[in-house]
Amino acid sequence: MKNKFYFFAIAILLIIFLYFSYQIFVEVKPLQVVFLDVGQGDSILIQKGTQQILIDGGPSGKTELAKLGQYLPYFDDEIEIVIMTHPDKDHLAGLVEVARNYKIGKVLTTAAEKDTQVFKEWQDVLSYNKVETLEVWRGTEVKFNDVSMKIIGPPEKVDPLVGEGNDKSVVARLDYGENFFLFTGDIESPAEKEILEGGESIDVDILKVAHHGSKYSSSEAFLDTASPEDAIISVSKNNSYGHPTEAVLNALAKRNIEIFRTDEKEDIIFICKPSEKCKNQNVK
Ligand SMILES: [Zn+2]
To answer: Is the dihedral of CA 232, 235, 237, 243 positive or negative?
Structure first.
């Protein structure tokens, strides 16, 4: 009888302990922002405890799944928010596999369509899994815990037949305490100009350089206004596009902006607490 009592008491204490440990795990976990080295493409994982925002999925499903497996808690099979900036393969292909292997809470994207096999597969997997898809443009705001994400571009609803869609990429600013990130997809100078005129603040600490460092992006005015301390270029070694271009590297260096390249440093990891500046974790 006595033994039984002790058994139940211990079981209850254990349950209480596990419950509070889990709560603490979620709350005190710092925010982690990882620019995944996915080769020539973009994929950014924003994670706090068991909650994630994934921006784009890079060009390969296999690479993307391996990367997520490395960073997500092993018991976590759900990604709360996926942002698909635009339907080019180097941003979208990996997301198809993500949607096949993870539960996705919600997809934020524009209405831009592309007549490609990978885009068709993406649409099929979203409808098969009944994933909620939200069309976004400037002003949409997403919050989880103390993390907030604001959509800066495109300025308005996008025509599905936008064609060359780089300039209609979803651009988002992440606000976390005193830390600000700007994720720019593959926008080029016309979209940058429009964003500057649009009036939303893009004054940030960490900038994901637009379009892998293409010479058609990262205009002087855009860099001056964003005025980041750190800039991330997501790019593969010896790619056929000549990314990143000397012009962009020089423009960043001239402003004393520290450059982090995925072809040199592989995954680029920032750990953030709300009351202090994010810390880069790369040892390379
Ligand atoms: Zn791209």
So the answer is: negative
Whether the bond between 87 and the residue before it is cis, its omega within 30 degrees of 0, is no
- Rounded Cα distance, 106 and 259, in Å: 32
Distance 27 CA to ligand 1 centre (A): 34
Distance 89 CA to ligand 1 centre (A): 8
Structural domains of the chain in order of their starting residue, each with its CATH number: 30-280 (3.60.15.10)
Entry pTM: 0.91
277 Cα–ligand 1 center, Å: 28
Q: What is the pLDDT of residues 125-162, one digit of tens each?
A: 999 999 999 999 999 999 988 899 999 999 999 999 87
Q: According to the model, what pLDDT value does residue 70 have?
A: 97
Give the pLDDT confidence of 45-83 residue by residue, as tens digits. 999 999 999 999 999 999 999 999 999 999 999 999 999
Burial of 113 per CB tally in 10 Å (0-12, 13-18, 19+): middle
Beta partners for residue 11, in sequence order: none
Q: What is the rounded CA–CA span in Å between residue 281 and residue 283?
A: 6
Q: Please, which residues have CB within 8 angstroms of residue 176's CB and are 6 or more apart in sequence?
A: 31, 146, 147, 148, 272, 274
- Cα 211 to averaged position of ligand 1 atoms, centre (Å): 5
